[in-house]
Amino acid sequence: MDRDEIRVAVLRIEGTNCEDETVKAFRMLGVDAEAVHLKQFYSDMIKDSEARTIWDYSCIVFPGGFSAGDYVRAGAIFSARVKSLLRHDLEMFIREGYPVLGICNGFQVLVELGALPGFDEDRPIAEKPEMVLAINNSNRFECRHSYLKHENSGKCVFTRKYGREEIVVFPVAHAEGKVVFPIGREEEYLNTLEENDQIVFRYVDPDGNYSGYPWNPNGSYSNIAGICNVKGNVFGLMPHPERVVHPWQHADWTRVERKEGDGLRVFESVLEYLERF
């Protein structure tokens, strides 16, 4: 499709944030993007001019924040509302190859929804969560720039413009970002992710080495910071690419020369994918 035909929905409910930054990241690349409240997809109290369906869009994004106050578990209420109202359409959307992105709280939503790790291509949304994003090992909110190594070999449609093993810097801001797999099956899950080329980013130190705290800000298993589903069109990550689309958004911008922020290519990658869709 042509770039002027691409439409992106950044879903919001009470407590989400960064939807405006995410919308602006897409708009600066010349596409139609808007923040859409979940109620616009189903409520009979919404005016016809403001009503939406998933099929109005080429890409769906779940942004960061603290949706519904992160009560019960981070992302649990947002995902439950999506699953009860939009599951059929969202499953078909994913199955047909349309891209879905979850950033920070959005990653938590996709995990609670069962869309990640997404091992089954025929059933893109599992009946129940298959992993969890747990409370940080530090037991506190972690907010800092993090070094990430891109480890995907091309499956993830959101990161194809990054080089294999390229080191980038995205900020993190979360209290529940630790990737945890079922007890006793951690290596099984890890091996499956690696074999399927589903690991996208891992936390590293400035030299690109896998390291513990503070470089791994949450204690995530195997330093995992972001994964995609087996098809490559659903991507979740805890760090925030939308917060570093400009060079001056990096903490070291006065010392390191960049033509663009490290996060911009996430949005460029998916748009190039959609242009070939």
UniProtKB/TrEMBL annotation:
PROSITE patterns named in the record: GATASE_TYPE_1
GO cellular component, one term: cytoplasm
Chief place where the protein resides: cytoplasm
EC number(s) stated in the UniProt entry for this protein: 6.3.5.3, 3.5.1.2
Pathway terms, separated by semicolons: Purine metabolism; IMP biosynthesis via de novo pathway; 5-amino-1-(5-phospho-D-ribosyl)imidazole from N(2)-formyl-N(1)-(5-phospho-D-ribosyl)glycinamide: step 1/2
Xref: SUPFAM superfamilies: Class I glutamine amidotransferase-like (SSF52317)
Keywords carried by this UniProt record: ATP-binding, Cytoplasm, Glutamine amidotransferase, Hydrolase, Ligase, Nucleotide-binding, Purine biosynthesis
One function term, GO molecular function aspect: ATP binding
Localisation: Cytoplasm
Active-site residues per Swiss-Prot or TrEMBL entry: 104 (nucleophile), 240, 242
Catalytic activity, as annotated: N(2)-formyl-N(1)-(5-phospho-beta-D-ribosyl)glycinamide + L-glutamine + ATP + H2O = 2-formamido-N(1)-(5-O-phospho-beta-D-ribosyl)acetamidine + L-glutamate + ADP + phosphate + H(+); L-glutamine + H2O = L-glutamate + NH4(+)
Keyword Hydrolase on entry: yes
Record's subunit section: Part of the FGAM synthase complex composed of 1 PurL, 1 PurQ and 2 PurS subunits.
Name of the molecule in the record: Phosphoribosylformylglycinamidine synthase subunit PurQ
Gene: purQ
